Fold this sequence. Notes:
By secondary structure, the protein is an alpha/beta fold.
Amino acid sequence: MNDSQxxxxxxxVSASQCAHENQIRLIWGPPGTGKTNTIAxxxxxxxxxxxxxxxxxxxxxxxxxxxxxxxxxxAGDPSQKGGRAFRLGDVALFGNRDRMEIVDVxxxxxxxxENCAKKLSHCFSPEKGWRHHIACMTDLLxxxxxxxxxxxxxxxxxxxxxxxxxxxVSESLIECLETLWTHLPSSSISETDFENIATACDLLRYLxxxxxxxxFSKTKLExxxxxxxEGGERPKLESDVALKITECLSILEGLLDTLELPxxxxxxxxxxxxxxxxxxxxxxxxxxxxxxxxxxxxxxxxLVIDEAAQLKECEAFIPLQIPGIRHAILIGDECQLPxxxxxxxxxxxxx
Length: 351
């Protein structure tokens, strides 16, 4: 960014910290001067400060452009450390899927609220959700021999049973855990649990690879998969694997105790759950009317409106009247298209 853009971001960030009065900031710049890029850096700064922010624009295309620019900025941030410093669940993009043409912008699909709710609904399911998958894995690791005895007609050997069963269960569990890691807002899970989820996925992949590449005897394998946390020892020859199995069990059982997540797979409920906990919310000015229905414990405090010159005055009041909004940042210039009236009836009345 140049000095002018940095100054604009700094001024807006300072205004967002003002607690004794409401603030309004205007960012002006002719076409092609980097206003959208400036918004992306501003939102990144506000997100790092955990300032709950609502970003609006007159059109779906404009909203999608701002959201995409922000996500690309985050993706290219070297401080991401492999993508673990930022949660996509902290961003909520909602609106009309068809008008927004979300299918044409892959990076934005990851934060589109309906997509996230659909993925999370499978994880929150009481019958087949994350708790079910963890229970299946812990049962296999702690007492795989008993499970094989019950299903020995389906598998010729204990080795084939462990390989096949572990692969099926681990793939389902990893998919579920990674969905939680990716799409849950950071405020819904502690940082320790986020790290444990990532570690558990790494351990499960390691164990699956070990099972398919290592030669071992039936006795050794049976001893590994009959370990009890209350007593028993892993074979000394497989101490590294034994430690990883023990660590994996400990993490998975810990997640069962510490994760407090919804037990409903109802998608509208999950949409509300994520929307209330997101740090950055993107939508059109008109769609922001939906936020008036939510009694958020922590409503957005900052409103950012891109292409503000295209708005009719009455439209601007929709997000400005959302309870909790304290500061507004308007971006645009007089060269932008003015507000347009598409209704033939309304246009006839004014003509």
